[in-house]
Amino acid sequence: MKIIDAHNHPDCHGHDLDKFLANMERYGIDQTWLLNWECQENEYDFHYKNVLAGPVLGSPAGPVPFSRCISYKERAPEKFVLGYCPDPRLPDACARLKAAHDIYGAKVCGELKCRMMYDNPDALRLFRLAGELGMPVTFHLQYDRQRTCDDPRQEWWGGTIDTIERVLRACPDTLFLGHAPGFWIHISNDALWRDHTYPPENVKVVSGGRVPELLRKYPNLYGDLSAGSGCQALKRDPEFAKGFLTEFQDRVLYARDFFDHQHQEVINSLDLATGVLEKIYHANAEKLIKE
Ligand SMILES: [Zn+2]
Question: Domains in the chain, ordered, with CATH?
Answer without folding.
Answer: 4-288 (3.20.20.140)
